[in-house]
Amino acid sequence: MAAEATLPAGQVLALASIAMGKIDLWGGRGLTMVSVQEIEAMALLLAAIGLVPTRPGEPAPPAYFPLQET
After folding, report:
1. Which residue of 2, 10, 48, 53 has the fewest CB atoms within a 10 Å radius of its CB?
2. What pLDDT, on a 0 to 100 scale, did the predictor assign at position 31?
3. Is 54 contained in some domain?
């Protein structure tokens, strides 16, 4: 991600978990209830575990996780 994480790791995990809980419980309706901060936390968590971003208009990377075997 372009910006550095400003949330402590514990808060990132908590916010991402809350967002997942909303989506898991309410499905599509839950998606509309997720806050911008919760979305940021999910993105930070995905970046922390090594997911390679695909920027708009660019092709998908050969591997979404660099250590993943193709």
Report:
1. 2
2. 95
3. no
